[in-house]
């Protein structure tokens, strides 16, 4: 239930709809109870030869005599209206019942009307909040999570809440109010019979509640398996070329079928437990009604303390209690099921973000002097991948980082862009620690081109505008020209409006990389971070991209993580790294002359 109350917090912005829902439910429950009580005078007219003749309005004598006062008052009104004609009296009472049921259903509709906006609003806000938190969390969070599981939480778990836990919002006021008003009417008709009823209802409720105890655990297993299933599907679609190339279709098919079989078994157990709820609650309801018939019959036929018409109306009221009681029971089952989904969603919402901006974080609007790495040490897990790394990059210089795979080159890019925070030391831009800046203003000073050209299923224009949303078509074309990409874009059927497909799969590797460079050029930041931007390209594509990179780096400060010699031989400073430490630094010619580590890397032609 704790998670249910957490979800209720998202209903606060919709309090006006909630108030409308509550007021409508009060009248729904009131008219629902009165509609059964209104049956009493009609039954009196039907089953008694002479309607009770009362010529003077009755006097109210207290709560204990409320039932008699109500009957006498109705009889008085009927007598005033219909005189000695029972047919007119019957029409009056039937009209009263129709009006009460009409009012009940009008307010029932209004309650549902207000609830639609409240419920759908909560779902929208919850989904938006989960997505917003997902894109705010650091990359380190996702390195420990399955992508499919995250997708399942944002989509399936929120949908589970929509159809399990959130419908229970409708039960919070409607069903309890219906029960309260009905019980009041039952007490008025027969206090003894009502006491008897409430001895048995808690017993039946206890039996029903025992069935639902394991629902949360079973639901949690289903949702986790759904995450695994989605993750397998996502991996399959991403790596389909490799799967086919290695004849691994059967292996992945077996893996997927294992997951669907587990999902099948877990779902069967969950749904069968849910299906047990309805027949159990219905049987217990009939059992209570049967006992009620027996005891009520005693009061009517043997004790003569209750008249027949009142007993029939009482039975209607008793049934009127069973309907909301059953709805509450079903709602509690749904809350149990939704509890697991809410918990998984809340895990994302409550996940700590170590990279969150400080309260008084500074906003940086430009880059003036230098970037300084001051005794920086960093580890992703247990082993340090950077150790006491110190480097100064003056404004306007191009610094290249080279070294074998695992030497810490890409980590430098991750730290300067603040995808991760340093464990020890500081990174300063113009003398300010990057942790003291707002993340937005820091990244506004940076342009990033990665080894994998990450593009989106949209037009070329919209992909480029990611860096500058208000860019004109002319600015976009200029950026494409700088990136050496306009030559192929202008040949496309729709030019910059051409959709490039999922992850840009309608383009070649070189074309995609040139678009990612154009995106960085359009943003026009003072600092460029190039993370092995040409390593995945063929020779011809590399040549075109290299020209684009040189165009882009003019008059900018650049950090180049190098894979090939052609990328870095003109750099102002080359930093040779090994196991997280600087082993050599200098210009290309100076390092060649040393005939050390750099010379060996050049001979190998590989700066992995």
Automatic annotation (TrEMBL):
Pfam families: ABC_membrane, ABC_tran. Its main location: membrane. Residues 371-604 form the ABC transporter domain. GO terms for cellular component: plasma membrane. Residues 73-337 form the ABC transmembrane type-1 domain. InterPro entries: AAA+_ATPase, ABC1_TM_dom, ABC1_TM_sf, ABC_transporter-like_ATP-bd, ABC_transporter-like_CS, P-loop_NTPase, Type_1_exporter. Keywords: ATP-binding, Membrane, Nucleotide-binding, Transmembrane, Transmembrane helix, Transport. PROSITE patterns: ABC_TM1F, ABC_TRANSPORTER_1, ABC_TRANSPORTER_2. The chain crosses the membrane at residues 26-47, 89-111, 179-208. One of its GO terms (molecular function) is ATP binding. It is found in: Cell membrane. SUPFAM superfamilies: ABC transporter transmembrane region, P-loop containing nucleoside triphosphate hydrolases. This is ABC transporter ATP-binding protein. It comes from Aestuariibaculum suncheonense.
């Amino acid at each position: 239930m704790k998670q249910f109350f957490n979800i209720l917090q998202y209903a606060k912005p919709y309090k006006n709809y909630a108030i409308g829902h509550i007021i409508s439910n009060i009248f729904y429950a009131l008219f629902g109870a009165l509609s059964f009580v209104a049956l009493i005078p009609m039954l009196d007219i039907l089953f008694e030869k002479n309607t009770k003749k009362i010529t003077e309005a009755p006097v109210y004598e207290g709560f204990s005599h409320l039932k008699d006062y109500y009957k006498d008052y109705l009889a008085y009104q009927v007598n005033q209206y219909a005189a000695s004609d029972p047919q007119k009296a019957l029409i009056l009472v039937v009209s009263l019942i129709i009006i009460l049921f009409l009012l009940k259903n009008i307010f029932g509709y209004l309650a549902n009307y207000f609830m639609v906006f409240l419920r759908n609003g909560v779902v929208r806000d919850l989904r938006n909040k989960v997505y917003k938190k997902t894109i705010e969390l650091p990359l380190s969070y996702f390195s420990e999570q399955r992508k499919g599981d995250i997708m399942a939480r944002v989509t399936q778990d929120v949908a589970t809440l929509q159809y399990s836990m959130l419908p229970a919002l409708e039960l919070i006021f409607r069903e309890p109010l219906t029960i309260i008003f009905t019980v009041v009417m039952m007490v008025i008709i027969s206090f003894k019979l009502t006491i008897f009823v409430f001895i048995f209802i808690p017993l039946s409720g206890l039996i029903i509640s025992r069935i639902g105890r394991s629902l949360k655990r079973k639901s949690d297993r289903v949702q986790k398996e759904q995450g695994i299933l989605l993750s397998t599907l996502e991996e399959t679609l991403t790596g389909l070329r490799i799967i086919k190339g290695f004849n691994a279709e059967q292996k992945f098919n077996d893996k997927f079928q294992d997951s669907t079989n587990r999902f099948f078994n877990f779902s069967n157990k969950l749904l069968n437990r849910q299906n047990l709820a309805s027949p159990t609650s219905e049987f217990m309801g009939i059992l209570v009604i049967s006992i009620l018939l027996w005891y009520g019959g005693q009061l009517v036929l043997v004790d003569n303390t209750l008249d027949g018409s009142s007993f029939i109306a009482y039975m209607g009221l008793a049934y009127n209690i069973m309907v909301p009681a059953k709805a509450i029971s079903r709602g509690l089952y749904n809350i149990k099921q939704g509890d697991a989904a809410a918990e998984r969603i809340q895990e994302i919402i409550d996940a700590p973000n170590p990279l969150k901006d400080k309260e008084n974080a500074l906003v940086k609007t430009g880059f003036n002097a230098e970037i300084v790495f001051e005794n920086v040490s960093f580890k992703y897990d247990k082993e340090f991948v950077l150790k006491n790394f110190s480097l100064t990059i003056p404004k306007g210089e191009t610094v290249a980082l080279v070294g074998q795979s695992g030497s810490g080159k890409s980590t430098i890019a991750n730290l300067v862009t603040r995808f991760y925070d340093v464990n020890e030391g500081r990174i300063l831009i113009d003398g300010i620690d990057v942790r003291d800046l707002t993340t937005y203003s820091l990244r506004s000073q940076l342009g990033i081109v990665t080894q994998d050209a990450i593009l989106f299923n949209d037009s070329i224009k919209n992909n480029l505008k990611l860096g500058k949303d208000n860019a004109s078509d002319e600015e976009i074309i200029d950026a494409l020209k700088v990136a050496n990409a306009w030559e192929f874009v202008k040949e496309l059927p729709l030019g910059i409006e051409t959709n490039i497909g999922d992850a840009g799969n309608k383009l070649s590797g070189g074309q995609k990389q040139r678009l990612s460079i154009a995106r960085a050029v359009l943003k026009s930041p003072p600092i460029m971070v190039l993370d092995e931007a040409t390593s995945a390209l063929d020779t011809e594509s590399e040549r075109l991209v290299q020209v684009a990179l040189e165009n882009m780096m003019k008059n900018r400060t650049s950090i180049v993580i190098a894979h090939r010699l052609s990328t870095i031989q003109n750099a102002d400073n080359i930093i040779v790294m090994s196991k997280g430490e600087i082993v050599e630094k200098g210009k290309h010619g100076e390092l060649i002359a040393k005939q050390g580590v750099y010379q060996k890397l050049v001979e190998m032609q590989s700066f992995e």
